[in-house]
Amino acid sequence: xxxxxxxxxxxxxxxxxxxxxxxxxxxxxxxxxxxxxxxxxxxxxxxxxxxxxxxxxxxxxxxxxxxxxxxxxxxxxxxxxxxxxxxxxxxxxxxxxxxxxxxxxxxxxxxxxxxxxxxxxxxxxxxxxxxxxxxxxxxxxxxxxxxxxxxxxxxxxxxxxxxxxxxxxxxxxxxxxxxxxxxxxxxxxxxxxxxxxxxxxxxxx
Length: 205
Hints:
This protein is an alpha+beta fold. It has 2 domains: 1-18 and 122-175 and 189-205, 2-Layer Sandwich (Translation Initiation Factor IF3); 19-120, Alpha-Beta Plaits. Helices cover 28% and strands 41% of the residues. The strands form 2 sheets. The chain has a 5-stranded antiparallel β-sheet. A 3-stranded antiparallel β-sheet has the order 1-8-6. The two termini are 16 Å apart. It comes from Kribbella jiaozuonensis. This is DUF541 domain-containing protein. Pfam families: SIMPL. InterPro entries: 26kDa_periplasmic_antigen, SIMPL/DUF541.
């Protein structure tokens, strides 16, 4: 069995977000599956057109999920089927959320729902590099202290395992209705934090 010490170090670095990702839902219920699917497709197209009208490109829009299911109804009630699409929106305009939401609401009214939004850093390379450095320094310091307490000298690194995390994504669901939101709706991005944990194994000198 190898001898030495294994420790975990953590590093956390914050950066300024430069991209906003929004998840919108479009839903419709109908007595049959075909009608539900057809209608939700039309409404999704309407939302996409409204968002393009706000200056978004095709590459910034995507249908990320499609669902169809039978709704629960009381016994002896006529069956109903609900179809839904999830639209993923990505924009560099961090202040334009209200205008985008209003455009989508105007297109389909109460068929729209807001699943969530996330401010993010598109390129995290530099942040991750800094977080790794902090994590390794912390691991080395802890290992050195443990080695001294055990009466050993710290040797070379024999293995490293990395775990990467980022801030949790807030998830909200709001029913949208026409004229419900101010186009100047103020959404503050704050800082985006990435965290790296390193499990580092050191041998004894």
